[in-house]
Structures are given as structure tokens and as C-alpha cells.
Design brief:
779 residues, globular, Alkaline Phosphatase, subunit A, two-stranded antiparallel sheet, 27 helices, 54% helix
């Protein structure tokens, strides 16, 4: 069995890692030569404002009474700038959003296996290509660009991480800090000749990351007064910063300004998925080299009604997507635009060449099929250059845009070049392994035969079993009303056992008070009370110990485990989801009783009341019976309930649709690792409940653990075959994460459940006894 387990572990690890080789390899390539324009740029410096978490409608849409909350930014397109909507791509998170803005590519899906890191992959950025870059803002965003820079020319100034407190009375102080630091920086530069001369050099970038709007959106929701007032504060701050820059540089007309956002936010204060409120962000551009107030009196064709809603229908709207230079924003000659587009096309074509070379070197020559031959590439480039030289700039721009489209298609072609072959190999391997396990079951567990006809379980009783799964809560409430022959009627528990449950009942009541008190305190902007925080962490710690102090009688111990876990789950809940572990527990009690009744009906065991079972007396089964057809049903139900436990209220992928409200009873200062750990434990609590229930069924029905392992292995592998074909490497982190979690949970089900069964074995069968001398030991 050990050899088989090691072989199965190795096979599943290989199959699990295979999806990352097939779907989640980095599309980025390195080694390209940077492209430069032969013409001088219109601006010497760029000022980039990013209002984290700002929705497009929140900035542009007027109030009901016709007033606007962003007086300065809202009227820039009326006088001296251009505007549009920046269509962000999912995942709508801060890190991938800023990478797209500053580095020019969408999220690298290989980062899904690398977690929240400063730089999951190496990439170039505008900051790195600049002569100097100064950045102010969040410690979660700025370091990733400074760390990836080739040199020390990217300077970052961040506030302490403790300022990112979702329970703060006013998160707009994060933006106020940025504006204050920028003013202080330029005031000190006037007294520092070395810094003054550096600031007047060309190719300089200033980046102001404004996190207050996002923080207020998470804490108070986007429709709240705090969120909307923060927009007004940012608008005033941007106007003040523009005055500071213009005064410092003597209004030389060589500064370009860009105001945008990395992502939006849903009405309930989360982001990460593909809702329009998350993907539509504002874009306002003005300054050197930018078109000025483009008025239009013709109808603008868009699929939405935002122009009329926002009162901007007479001003030209220019939307932006990633990859292609938005020429409509540039106020330059057609020659400059053609040269810019040509450099853009050559840069993307260089990436295509490197990708093609890499794939050609790792593929047999007779199997390699080029997407775009070298001669066609050279012809495109030569033709575009000739058009520019003879002054046919519009045709050159069209030709470069066509080349960009082909190069992007070619990059996708080579990135997925081996996907079909690798996927077929994995599918064939899955099929072979599953067939091998089935043969082992048939060979070594040959008891798969129907019981004698006289004791067959009636079909009607099977239907009643399924019905019991839906109405078990009602049956359990009225257990005393049932006949004594029904196994659901239990003997009353001992009084001392009930007394032992009283502290846990009081603890659940205290958790309910803490949850309500914390919610009220945060609404009143009084922060997280220290008492509530201490109770929350104490409840989490005690949930692993209190069950071990209770009786090891089956229902007594299960009830103690439930009470301990419900308290923690309650503190991690934000709504009706707190009822899920209670509903799941009632369902488990019904399942336990149903299986015991089925065993008794078939005459497979002597009549034993469930209340008389003790985990410590019967956990070590000496008689290992062979598999029966009913065991397949039990294994199937077990897998079904595990899936229900995982996807009942959410899963690991939902963590990426970030909403920190679930952990407010424990902490409010942003900490992705602690917050993620708490949410992971919340996900695992329903697993523990199901595992404890199945441990009870093993005890009461004398089910073989080894047989269970093999049956669950076959079921999970058949499910894995299905979910492998549904894995996605595009869409939001929620979409990607959900497709991965489907596959991962069925792939790792057997191994994971075996490890989790060790924990549940301790929770159910071990007991801490404190003697007169306060000695603690396991019985």
C-alpha cells in the first residue's frame, strides 16, 4: 500500500504541475532591442496620477442636482485636454493594473502560482526607461517598480503600511500625505542645486499613487459619502499639484499630465472580476503634446449611454485599450505619429521574433510551422519605412497597425504552440492511471457483490434516504417523537456533558456580540475595539483545544467540534453565510443517521444506538471488511459533500475578488498574508465538519479506510479529467482561480483528505484530561 501511495502521489504531482506548464507559463520574452524615435518628443517630463479604485462614472457623472464633484478634472476636456475611458482587463487588482499602466502588458498568468509578490516576473517599465523617476504612494505598489529597475534612478517615497487601515476614520489622509510630500520635495529642491539640475533633465517621470479612494471604497462602499468626498479631495489635490509643477518649471509648456485609475469597484466594495464598474476607469490627458478640447457636434457611436449620462456628448471621447499607441490623443504632425506607430510596431515585432526563435529551437524542424515568415516580416517593415520616407504617413500608420495585429496574433500562436499535444498526453495518462486503479480495486477488494435478495434495500427506501438529506434538520428537531426502532431517536446525553458544553455556547454568544459590536464600531468610525480583537484571536486559538476537553461519545464530541468551529466562522462572516456551517452540520447528522439505519435495515451489523458509540473504543477497527456496493454510494456522497463544503459560500478564488470585511474582527490594517490565512481557514472549516461526519460513519459502519481511499481516488480522477479540459488562462483572477480550484480540489482530494483525516482523527478520538495535579495527557 505504501508503494502504491507513493506512486499515486508522484502521478498526481506530475499531472497537477502539468497545468502550469500547459496553461500558466509566462508570455513575456526578453532580449529585445529598445526602439527610439528619430524625432524629439514634445514633452520633457510626465506626471502620472493614479487614483486607485476610482470608477469612471464616479468621476464624470454629475450629481442629481447637476453639480459635479470633481470640478478641475471634469472640466479639463472642456478647455485644454482630452478624455476617454480606459478599458482595464481582468484581473482588476492593484498590482496587475499598475503593471498594465506602467509596463504596457496585461497580467502575466504565471503569477497565479507565485502569489502576492513585488515582482512575480521580470519586466521593463516606463520608469526603468526614464532618466529619473520619483514616486510617492503605497508601500504595496511602488517597490515592485523600484526593485525591477536596472539602476538606482527610480526613487520611491512610501507611507508606513499601518496607515492602510480599513477601520480608519478618514482614509483620504493617504492621499493628503502624497500631496504634502510632493510639495515638500519641490520646496527642498529649490535649495538643492544638484537635485534642481537633475529635475530639469529630460525623460523624467513623476508618479503619484493615490490609495485613499480604494481604501474608502472597501471600508464604506463606492456610494458612500467618504468615497465621494475623497474624489473631491483628489480633484483639489491634482489641481494644486499642477500649480506646483508649473510654478517650479516656470510654465515652460513641456510637462504632460495623465490622470487615470488602475481599476474600479463594485457597489459592494470589491474588485477583481469583470463587472463594468470594475473595468471602466477614467482617463484624462492634458499638457505638452496632447490634443486640446476636441469638440464634436456629430453623434459618437458607442454601445453605452455614458456620453448623455455624463453630459459630455459634445466632447470627443477617446477610449484606450492596451498594446496600440492612441494617436488621437497626440497633438503632433502626421510625420511624428507615423514614426511613433512605426516604433510601436517594430517593438512588438521584436518580441514576436524572439518568441518564434525560442519555439523553433525547442521543436523538431519537421514539426515547426511558422506563423509569419522572415521574408514577410521584412517586407512589412520595408514597406512602412518607404511610405514614411515618401510622406504617405496615413498609409504608413495603417500598415504599422496591421503589422501590430499580426505580431500580437503570432505571439499568442507560439505561446500556445504545444498546448494541444501536451493536453492530449495528460488526458491519456489520466485514463491509464484510472484504469489501473479500477483493476486494483477489482483484484484486491473483490467483495463487490449485491447482498442476498431477501435483504435488499427497497428502492423506495433509497428515495427516502435522498429525501432525508434535504429534510434532516426537521427530523432531528423532533427526534423524541420518532419510534424507538428508528436510529435517529437517541438516548439523552449525560448532564455533565451538557454542562461541559455551556462554556462553548457562551463563547458562540460572545462571538455574536463581538461581530455586531465590531460592525457598529466601524460604522461609527471608532475603529476596531481592542476587547473585540482579543476575543476574536482567543476564539480562534481555543477552537483547536476546546473540543479535546469534551466527551468522546459520538454526538457529544461532534457537537463540541461544531460549537468551536461555528464561533470562528461567525467572526469571519459578513452576512447570511454564517448559517452555512449550521446547515451543513444538520445535513451531516442526517447522513450519519441515514447510513446507520441503512446498515441495520440490510442486517449487515448488530443493532447499536448511535449515542452509545465512542470514538476511543471503536476507532481502531480490527475487522476490515471487503467493499460492497453501498460503500461506493458512501464514497460518492462523501465526495459530493466535500464539493459542497468547498463551493458552498466561496472558495480560494474568491479571495482574489478582494473584500477585507470578513476579517475586520481580527484586524483592519492591510496585511495580505494574515488576511489570506484567515480566509483560508474559513474555507477549510466546512471541510473539517464533513471529515468529522465521515469519521463517524467509518466508526458506525466499519468502513475500510483503505477501500475508501481507492474509491475516492477513482471518483476524483474521473472528475479531474473533466475539469482539466475546463482550465482557463484568461479572464479575471476569479475566473482563472475558479477553473484552477475545480481541477486542484479533485486532483489533490485524496492526498489532501488523508492529511485532513489526521486532524479530524485527533479532534474526534483524542481527549485532554486535566487531573487533580493539573497533568495533561491524551487518553
Amino acid at each position: 500500500m505504501i508503494t502504491f501511495f507513493i506512486a499515486g502521489l508522484l502521478v498526481h504531482v506530475v499531472f497537477f504541475i502539468s497545468i502550469f506548464d500547459i496553461y500558466f507559463t509566462s508570455p513575456l520574452v526578453h532580449g529585445m532591442k529598445p526602439q527610439h524615435l528619430p524625432l524629439p518628443p514634445p514633452a520633457k517630463r510626465l506626471v502620472l496620477f493614479v487614483a486607485d479604485g476610482l470608477r469612471a462614472d464616479s468621476l464624470f457623472k454629475p450629481e442629481i442636482n447637476g453639480t459635479v464633484r470633481a470640478q478641475y478634472l471634469r472640466y479639463l476636456p472642456h478647455e485644454r485636454g482630452a478624455w476617454g475611458i480606459s478599458h482595464t482587463r481582468v484581473p482588476t487588482e492593484s498590482r496587475p493594473g499598475h503593471v498594465a499602466l506602467i509596463a504596457g502588458f496585461y497580467e502575466d498568468v504565471s503569477a497565479v502560482a507565485k502569489g502576492w509578490k513585488e515582482n512575480p516576473v521580470e519586466f521593463d517599465s516606463v520608469f526603468n526607461e526614464s532618466r529619473h523617476a520619483w514616486c510617492w504612494g503605497s508601500p504595496d505598489i511602488l517597490p515592485m517598480f523600484a526593485k525591477g529597475a536596472s539602476g538606482s534612478h527610480v526613487h520611491t517615497y512610501t507611507y508606513p503600511a499601518t496607515m492602510e487601515d480599513f477601520a480608519s476614520t478618514d482614509a483620504s489622509k493617504l492621499d493628503t500625505w502624497v500631496f504634502h510630500e510632493v510639495k515638500g520635495f519641490f520646496n527642498s529642491a529649490k535649495e538643492n542645486q544638484t537635485l534642481l539640475s537633475i529635475l530639469h533633465e529630460e525623460q523624467t517621470v513623476f508618479f503619484l499613487h493615490l490609495l485613499g479612494i480604494d481604501t474608502n471604497g472597501h471600508a464604506h462602499r463606492p456610494m458612500s459619502k467618504e468615497y465621494l468626498d475623497n474624489i473631491g479631495l483628489v480633484d483639489d489635490g491634482v489641481a494644486e499639484m499642477v500649480s506646483v509643477f508649473e510654478e517650479f518649471y516656470g510654465n515652460d509648456g513641456k510637462t504632460a499630465y495623465v490622470f487615470t485609475s488602475d481599476h474600479g469597484m463594485t457597489n459592494w466594495g470589491s474588485h477583481g472580476a469583470s463587472h463594468l464598474s470594475e473595468t471602466l476607469t477614467p482617463l484624462v490627458v492634458w499638457g505638452a503634446g496632447v490634443q486640446i478640447a476636441q469638440r464634436t457636434f456629430t453623434s459618437q457611436t458607442y454601445d453605452d449611454n455614458y456620453l448623455e449620462e455624463w453630459g459630455l456628448e459634445t466632447y470627443r471621447r477617446i477610449d484606450v485599450n492596451q498594446g496600440v499607441l492612441p494617436l488621437q490623443y497626440l497633438d503632433n504632425s502626421q510625420h511624428f505619429k507615423a514614426e511613433s506607430m512605426h516604433a510601436n510596431a517594430i517593438q512588438i515585432l521584436e518580441q514576436f521574433k524572439v518568441k518564434m526563435k525560442q519555439k523553433k529551437e525547442t521543436t523538431l524542424s519537421f514539426l515547426f510551422t511558422p506563423f509569419l515568415t522572415d521574408s514577410k516580416q521584412a517586407e512589412f517593415v520595408r514597406h512602412a519605412r518607404e511610405l514614411i520616407q515618401i510622406g504617405r504617413f496615413d498609409e504608413a500608420i495603417d500598415g504599422c497597425q496591421a503589422l501590430i495585429g499580426l505580431a500580437l496574433e503570432g505571439l499568442a500562436y507560439y505561446h500556445t504552440y504545444d498546448r494541444f499535444f501536451l493536453a492530449c498526453s495528460v488526458l491519456l495518462g489520466f485514463t491509464g492511471w484510472t484504469a489501473y486503479v479500477i483493476l486494483i480495486i477489482l483484484k484486491t477488494h473483490a467483495g463487490l457483490r449485491k447482498p442476498p435478495t431477501s435483504r435488499d434495500l427497497p428502492v423506495s427506501l433509497m428515495a427516502i434516504q435522498l429525501l432525508l438529506l434535504g429534510v434532516d434538520a426537521t427530523l432531528l428537531v423532533h427526534t423524541e417523537a420518532l419510534p424507538h426502532r428508528n436510529a435517529i431517536a437517541q438516548t439523552p446525553p449525560r448532564c455533565n456533558s451538557l454542562n461541559a458544553m455551556c462554556p462553548q455556547v457562551l463563547q458562540v454568544a460572545l462571538c455574536t456580540y463581538v461581530l455586531a459590536s465590531t460592525h457598529s464600531s466601524l460604522q461609527q468610525k471608532r475603529g476596531l475595539p481592542l476587547f473585540n480583537q482579543l476575543v476574536s484571536w482567543a476564539t480562534l486559538a481555543s477552537s483547536f483545544v476546546l473540543p479535546l476537553l469534551s466527551s468522546t461519545r459520538l454526538f457529544h464530541r461532534l457537537l463540541s467540534i461544531l460549537m468551536a468551529l461555528v464561533g470562528v466562522y461567525l467572526l469571519l462572516s459578513t452576512g447570511y453565510e454564517a448559517l452555512f456551517p449550521l446547515a451543513l452540520s444538520w445535513l451531516m447528522f442526517g447522513w450519519i443517521n441515514m447510513e446507520q439505519e441503512t446498515m441495520s435495515t440490510q442486517g449487515m451489523s448488530n443493532r447499536t444506538e448511535l449515542s452509545s458509540f465512542d470514538f476511543t473504543e471503536t476507532i481502531d477497527l480490527t475487522r476490515i471488511r471487503q467493499l460492497r456496493l453501498d460503500d461506493i454510494r458512501r464514497s460518492y456522497f462523501f465526495v459530493f459533500f466535500i464539493i459542497i463544503a468547498f463551493f458552498g459560500t466561496g472558495n480560494i478564488a474568491s479571495i482574489n475578488s478582494f473584500d477585507p470585511a470578513s476579517v475586520y474582527c481580527f484586524l483592519t490594517v492591510f496585511n495580505p498574508f494574515i488576511m489570506g490565512g484567515l480566509l483560508m481557514w474559513k474555507v477549510l472549516i466546512p471541510f473539517v465538519i464533513v471529515m468529522c461526519a465521515f469519521e463517524s460513519i467509518q466508526v458506525s459502519t466499519r468502513l475500510s479506510s483503505r477501500s475508501l481511499f481507492l474509491i475516492v481516488l477513482v471518483i476524483s480522477d474521473l472528475m479531474a479529467l473533466h475539469f482539466f479540459c475546463l482550465v482557463k488562462d484568461y479572464g479575471s483572477w476569479l475566473d482563472i482561480g475558479t477553473s484552477i480550484s475545480h481541477y486542484v480540489i479533485v486532483m489533490s482530494m485524496t492526498i489532501f483528505l488523508m492529511l485532513l483525516s489526521i486532524m479530524t482523527h485527533i479532534l474526534t478520538s483524542r481527549r485532554i484530561v486535566i487531573g487533580r495535579k493539573m497533568k495533561m495527557h491524551f487518553t
